[in-house]
Amino acid sequence: MTAHYPDGLTPEDITALQRAVDDELRSEGYPVPDWPDPDEPETEAA
Questions:
Q1: Does the pLDDT at position 20 exceed 80?
Q2: Which of 32, 11, 8 is CA-nearest to residue 21?
Q3: Which helix (H) or strand (E) holds 7?
Q4: Cα(44)–Cα(29) distance, rounded to whole angstroms?
């Protein structure tokens, strides 16, 4: 089944845009949390 994205943006596009916005906010001095890397496996807190 092919996903339908009515606005033409894929999840990868949205992630790239969010990273660009985060970089811009950081450069202006705003605190921006680090998002987890989706390619890294999650670790459980001890």
A1: yes
A2: 32
A3: none
A4: 31
